[in-house]
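Late entry, written up from scratch paper. The run itself happened at the end of the previous shift, but nothing got recorded in the book at the time, so transcribing now.
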Amino acid sequence: MRTLKGVAALALAGVMLTACSSAATPTATVPPVASSTPVPSAAATPTPTPNPCAPANLATKTAGVLTLGSDNPAYPPYFQPSASNTAPWELGDPTNQQGFEAAVAYAVAGELGYTPDKVTWAVTKFDNAIQPGPKDFDVYFQEVSYTAERAAAVDLTDGYYDVNQAIVAFKANKISGVTSIAALKAFKFGAQSSTTSYDTIKKTIVPTAEALGFKSNDLAVAGLNALQYDGLVTDLPTAFYLTTGGQLTDAVIVGQFPAQPGGEHFSAVLDKGSPLTACVNAALGRVKASGALAKITQEWLADKANAPVIQP
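Output as recorded:
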Protein backbone atom coordinates (compact mmCIF):
# COMPACT_ATOMS: atom_id res chain seq x y z
CA MET A 1 0.00 0.00 0.00
CA ARG A 2 1.51 3.30 -1.06
CA THR A 3 1.68 6.01 1.41
CA LEU A 4 0.42 9.51 0.72
CA LYS A 5 3.99 10.71 0.73
CA GLY A 6 4.96 8.21 -1.95
CA VAL A 7 2.04 9.18 -4.16
CA ALA A 8 3.00 12.80 -3.95
CA ALA A 9 6.56 12.00 -4.90
CA LEU A 10 5.42 10.08 -7.98
CA ALA A 11 3.20 12.91 -9.03
CA LEU A 12 6.03 15.40 -8.75
CA ALA A 13 8.31 13.17 -10.82
CA GLY A 14 5.72 12.97 -13.56
CA VAL A 15 5.38 16.69 -13.76
CA MET A 16 9.15 17.13 -14.03
CA LEU A 17 9.40 14.51 -16.80
CA THR A 18 6.72 16.23 -18.80
CA ALA A 19 8.45 19.57 -18.44
CA CYS A 20 11.83 18.16 -19.53
CA SER A 21 10.28 16.48 -22.58
CA SER A 22 8.63 19.73 -23.59
CA ALA A 23 11.90 21.71 -23.31
CA ALA A 24 13.87 19.16 -25.41
CA THR A 25 11.67 19.58 -28.49
CA PRO A 26 13.59 21.87 -30.98
CA THR A 27 11.85 24.77 -32.78
CA ALA A 28 12.10 24.39 -36.57
CA THR A 29 13.93 27.28 -38.41
CA VAL A 30 12.59 28.04 -41.89
CA PRO A 31 15.46 28.98 -44.28
CA PRO A 32 14.97 32.07 -46.50
CA VAL A 33 13.70 31.36 -49.98
CA ALA A 34 16.28 32.36 -52.62
CA SER A 35 14.90 34.78 -55.21
CA SER A 36 15.25 33.76 -58.85
CA THR A 37 15.49 37.45 -59.87
CA PRO A 38 19.03 38.88 -59.51
CA VAL A 39 19.32 42.15 -57.64
CA PRO A 40 21.02 44.72 -59.91
CA SER A 41 24.18 46.31 -58.56
CA ALA A 42 24.58 50.08 -58.64
CA ALA A 43 26.01 51.23 -62.03
CA ALA A 44 29.53 52.62 -61.74
CA THR A 45 29.77 56.29 -62.80
CA PRO A 46 32.72 56.68 -65.21
CA THR A 47 35.29 59.26 -64.21
CA PRO A 48 35.63 61.84 -67.00
CA THR A 49 39.09 61.99 -68.55
CA PRO A 50 40.61 65.47 -68.12
CA ASN A 51 41.23 67.32 -71.39
CA PRO A 52 45.00 67.93 -71.47
CA CYS A 53 44.47 70.72 -74.01
CA ALA A 54 41.98 72.71 -71.93
CA PRO A 55 43.28 76.14 -70.80
CA ALA A 56 43.22 75.01 -67.17
CA ASN A 57 45.64 72.18 -68.03
CA LEU A 58 48.01 73.98 -70.41
CA ALA A 59 51.33 75.15 -69.03
CA THR A 60 51.27 78.63 -70.59
CA LYS A 61 53.52 81.54 -69.64
CA THR A 62 50.63 83.03 -67.68
CA ALA A 63 48.02 80.67 -66.23
CA GLY A 64 44.74 80.91 -68.13
CA VAL A 65 46.23 83.22 -70.79
CA LEU A 66 47.73 82.39 -74.21
CA THR A 67 50.68 84.62 -75.12
CA LEU A 68 51.22 84.95 -78.85
CA GLY A 69 54.39 86.37 -80.35
CA SER A 70 55.26 88.28 -83.52
CA ASP A 71 57.85 90.71 -84.85
CA ASN A 72 57.36 94.46 -85.09
CA PRO A 73 56.59 96.16 -87.49
CA ALA A 74 53.66 93.82 -88.15
CA TYR A 75 53.30 93.84 -91.92
CA PRO A 76 50.01 93.71 -93.85
CA PRO A 77 48.44 91.59 -95.24
CA TYR A 78 49.46 89.41 -92.30
CA PHE A 79 48.42 92.03 -89.74
CA GLN A 80 46.11 94.95 -90.49
CA PRO A 81 46.34 98.42 -88.96
CA SER A 82 43.75 99.76 -86.53
CA ALA A 83 42.42 103.31 -86.46
CA SER A 84 44.77 103.73 -83.52
CA ASN A 85 47.26 100.88 -83.21
CA THR A 86 47.76 99.25 -79.83
CA ALA A 87 51.19 100.21 -78.51
CA PRO A 88 53.89 99.28 -79.44
CA TRP A 89 52.69 97.83 -82.74
CA GLU A 90 53.62 99.55 -86.01
CA LEU A 91 51.96 99.21 -89.44
CA GLY A 92 49.68 96.31 -88.47
CA ASP A 93 48.06 95.62 -85.11
CA PRO A 94 47.90 91.91 -84.13
CA THR A 95 45.40 92.59 -81.36
CA ASN A 96 42.56 93.54 -83.74
CA GLN A 97 42.36 89.97 -85.14
CA GLN A 98 42.60 91.32 -88.71
CA GLY A 99 45.05 90.05 -91.34
CA PHE A 100 46.09 86.53 -92.27
CA GLU A 101 48.46 85.71 -89.41
CA ALA A 102 46.27 87.38 -86.77
CA ALA A 103 43.15 85.60 -88.01
CA VAL A 104 44.90 82.20 -87.98
CA ALA A 105 46.35 82.87 -84.53
CA TYR A 106 42.96 83.76 -83.02
CA ALA A 107 41.28 80.80 -84.74
CA VAL A 108 43.82 78.43 -83.18
CA ALA A 109 43.46 80.15 -79.81
CA GLY A 110 39.69 79.75 -80.02
CA GLU A 111 40.02 76.03 -80.74
CA LEU A 112 42.20 75.73 -77.65
CA GLY A 113 39.48 77.39 -75.59
CA TYR A 114 40.92 80.90 -75.26
CA THR A 115 38.54 83.78 -75.88
CA PRO A 116 40.09 86.96 -77.34
CA ASP A 117 40.23 88.60 -73.92
CA LYS A 118 42.46 85.72 -72.77
CA VAL A 119 44.97 86.28 -75.59
CA THR A 120 47.91 88.66 -75.32
CA TRP A 121 50.78 89.51 -77.69
CA ALA A 122 54.53 89.85 -77.14
CA VAL A 123 56.98 91.55 -79.49
CA THR A 124 59.76 89.10 -80.35
CA LYS A 125 62.34 89.61 -83.07
CA PHE A 126 62.31 86.94 -85.76
CA ASP A 127 65.91 85.85 -85.17
CA ASN A 128 65.27 85.40 -81.44
CA ALA A 129 62.09 83.43 -82.04
CA ILE A 130 63.77 80.74 -84.16
CA GLN A 131 66.87 80.32 -81.97
CA PRO A 132 67.19 77.85 -79.07
CA GLY A 133 66.49 79.12 -75.58
CA PRO A 134 63.57 80.25 -73.38
CA LYS A 135 60.82 82.18 -75.12
CA ASP A 136 58.64 85.06 -73.95
CA PHE A 137 55.69 83.67 -75.94
CA ASP A 138 53.68 80.46 -76.02
CA VAL A 139 53.13 80.41 -79.81
CA TYR A 140 54.75 82.62 -82.48
CA PHE A 141 53.07 83.62 -85.76
CA GLN A 142 55.35 85.52 -88.17
CA GLU A 143 55.49 83.93 -91.63
CA VAL A 144 58.06 81.41 -90.38
CA SER A 145 58.89 78.94 -93.13
CA TYR A 146 59.64 75.38 -92.06
CA THR A 147 63.24 74.18 -92.41
CA ALA A 148 64.93 71.16 -90.88
CA GLU A 149 67.57 73.43 -89.35
CA ARG A 150 64.93 75.48 -87.54
CA ALA A 151 63.08 72.36 -86.45
CA ALA A 152 66.23 71.25 -84.66
CA ALA A 153 66.21 74.42 -82.55
CA VAL A 154 62.49 75.00 -81.92
CA ASP A 155 59.17 73.22 -82.33
CA LEU A 156 57.46 73.99 -85.65
CA THR A 157 53.80 73.16 -86.17
CA ASP A 158 52.17 71.62 -89.19
CA GLY A 159 51.98 74.00 -92.13
CA TYR A 160 49.13 76.45 -92.55
CA TYR A 161 50.13 78.29 -95.74
CA ASP A 162 52.14 77.20 -98.80
CA VAL A 163 54.25 80.07 -100.11
CA ASN A 164 56.69 80.96 -102.88
CA GLN A 165 59.49 83.52 -102.81
CA ALA A 166 59.46 86.57 -105.06
CA ILE A 167 61.63 89.52 -106.13
CA VAL A 168 60.65 93.18 -105.71
CA ALA A 169 62.48 95.95 -107.55
CA PHE A 170 61.95 99.48 -108.81
CA LYS A 171 60.54 99.87 -112.31
CA ALA A 172 63.52 102.00 -113.31
CA ASN A 173 65.98 99.22 -112.49
CA LYS A 174 66.97 96.90 -115.36
CA ILE A 175 66.23 93.90 -113.17
CA SER A 176 62.50 94.64 -113.50
CA GLY A 177 62.52 93.17 -117.01
CA VAL A 178 64.40 89.97 -116.16
CA THR A 179 62.48 86.70 -116.63
CA SER A 180 65.07 83.99 -115.93
CA ILE A 181 67.18 82.88 -112.98
CA ALA A 182 70.25 82.83 -115.23
CA ALA A 183 69.84 86.52 -116.04
CA LEU A 184 69.38 87.42 -112.35
CA LYS A 185 72.94 86.43 -111.43
CA ALA A 186 74.38 89.75 -112.58
CA PHE A 187 72.37 91.77 -110.06
CA LYS A 188 72.80 92.52 -106.36
CA PHE A 189 70.19 91.28 -103.90
CA GLY A 190 69.10 91.84 -100.34
CA ALA A 191 66.79 90.12 -97.85
CA GLN A 192 66.22 89.63 -94.16
CA SER A 193 68.96 87.34 -92.90
CA SER A 194 68.20 83.92 -91.40
CA THR A 195 65.14 83.57 -93.64
CA THR A 196 64.23 81.36 -96.58
CA SER A 197 64.23 84.56 -98.66
CA TYR A 198 67.94 84.98 -97.94
CA ASP A 199 68.47 81.26 -98.63
CA THR A 200 66.79 81.73 -102.02
CA ILE A 201 69.42 84.29 -102.96
CA LYS A 202 72.28 82.08 -101.84
CA LYS A 203 71.02 78.75 -103.15
CA THR A 204 68.68 79.48 -106.07
CA ILE A 205 69.87 82.74 -107.64
CA VAL A 206 73.55 82.38 -106.67
CA PRO A 207 74.47 85.92 -107.81
CA THR A 208 78.02 87.02 -108.55
CA ALA A 209 77.73 89.89 -106.03
CA GLU A 210 77.55 89.17 -102.30
CA ALA A 211 73.99 89.33 -100.97
CA LEU A 212 73.09 91.86 -98.28
CA GLY A 213 71.49 90.41 -95.15
CA PHE A 214 69.41 92.65 -92.88
CA LYS A 215 68.23 92.09 -89.31
CA SER A 216 64.60 92.73 -90.29
CA ASN A 217 62.48 92.97 -93.41
CA ASP A 218 61.85 96.60 -92.52
CA LEU A 219 65.59 97.32 -92.75
CA ALA A 220 65.81 95.35 -96.00
CA VAL A 221 63.07 97.54 -97.51
CA ALA A 222 64.92 100.65 -96.31
CA GLY A 223 68.06 99.34 -98.02
CA LEU A 224 66.19 98.92 -101.30
CA ASN A 225 64.78 102.44 -100.99
CA ALA A 226 68.32 103.69 -100.45
CA LEU A 227 69.38 101.90 -103.67
CA GLN A 228 71.91 99.74 -101.82
CA TYR A 229 71.01 96.79 -104.05
CA ASP A 230 68.80 95.90 -107.02
CA GLY A 231 66.26 93.31 -105.90
CA LEU A 232 64.56 92.46 -102.61
CA VAL A 233 63.69 88.80 -102.12
CA THR A 234 60.67 88.20 -99.89
CA ASP A 235 57.61 85.96 -99.73
CA LEU A 236 54.96 86.59 -102.37
CA PRO A 237 52.19 88.08 -100.17
CA THR A 238 54.67 90.57 -98.68
CA ALA A 239 55.84 91.42 -102.20
CA PHE A 240 52.26 92.30 -103.15
CA TYR A 241 51.87 94.45 -100.06
CA LEU A 242 55.11 96.34 -100.73
CA THR A 243 54.17 97.06 -104.36
CA THR A 244 50.53 98.03 -103.77
CA GLY A 245 50.88 101.02 -101.50
CA GLY A 246 53.06 99.71 -98.68
CA GLN A 247 56.49 101.34 -98.15
CA LEU A 248 57.65 101.33 -101.79
CA THR A 249 56.73 103.69 -104.65
CA ASP A 250 57.08 102.75 -108.32
CA ALA A 251 58.12 99.21 -107.42
CA VAL A 252 57.05 96.00 -109.15
CA ILE A 253 57.17 92.26 -108.60
CA VAL A 254 59.83 91.00 -110.97
CA GLY A 255 58.44 87.48 -110.54
CA GLN A 256 58.04 84.53 -108.21
CA PHE A 257 60.24 81.47 -108.01
CA PRO A 258 58.89 78.04 -108.95
CA ALA A 259 57.57 75.91 -106.11
CA GLN A 260 60.32 73.89 -104.45
CA PRO A 261 60.19 70.08 -104.06
CA GLY A 262 58.22 69.36 -100.92
CA GLY A 263 57.01 72.95 -100.93
CA GLU A 264 57.62 75.78 -98.50
CA HIS A 265 55.06 76.44 -95.83
CA PHE A 266 54.52 78.65 -92.83
CA SER A 267 54.62 77.06 -89.37
CA ALA A 268 53.94 78.48 -85.93
CA VAL A 269 56.89 78.38 -83.53
CA LEU A 270 57.02 77.04 -79.97
CA ASP A 271 59.85 76.41 -77.55
CA LYS A 272 61.70 73.16 -78.24
CA GLY A 273 59.85 70.32 -76.53
CA SER A 274 56.94 72.57 -75.55
CA PRO A 275 54.06 70.66 -73.89
CA LEU A 276 51.71 72.83 -75.96
CA THR A 277 52.90 71.71 -79.40
CA ALA A 278 50.62 68.66 -79.76
CA CYS A 279 47.61 70.69 -78.61
CA VAL A 280 48.37 73.54 -81.02
CA ASN A 281 48.74 71.06 -83.91
CA ALA A 282 45.40 69.46 -82.98
CA ALA A 283 43.73 72.89 -82.83
CA LEU A 284 45.26 73.85 -86.19
CA GLY A 285 43.96 70.59 -87.65
CA ARG A 286 40.43 71.49 -86.55
CA VAL A 287 40.77 74.97 -88.07
CA LYS A 288 41.69 73.30 -91.37
CA ALA A 289 38.99 70.60 -91.21
CA SER A 290 36.22 73.11 -90.48
CA GLY A 291 37.06 75.14 -93.57
CA ALA A 292 37.97 78.18 -91.46
CA LEU A 293 41.58 78.25 -92.68
CA ALA A 294 40.46 78.23 -96.32
CA LYS A 295 38.14 81.18 -95.64
CA ILE A 296 40.90 83.11 -93.86
CA THR A 297 43.29 82.46 -96.75
CA GLN A 298 40.68 83.51 -99.29
CA GLU A 299 39.92 86.72 -97.42
CA TRP A 300 43.46 87.90 -96.82
CA LEU A 301 45.76 86.25 -99.38
CA ALA A 302 43.77 84.99 -102.37
CA ASP A 303 44.47 88.09 -104.45
CA LYS A 304 48.15 87.85 -103.64
CA ALA A 305 48.88 84.80 -105.80
CA ASN A 306 49.38 86.23 -109.30
CA ALA A 307 52.94 86.98 -110.35
CA PRO A 308 54.96 85.69 -113.31
CA VAL A 309 57.05 82.61 -112.60
CA ILE A 310 60.78 83.15 -113.10
CA GLN A 311 62.17 80.56 -115.47
CA PRO A 312 65.53 78.71 -115.04
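The chain has two domains: 55-162+265-304, 165-256.
(Scratch paper discarded after transcription.)
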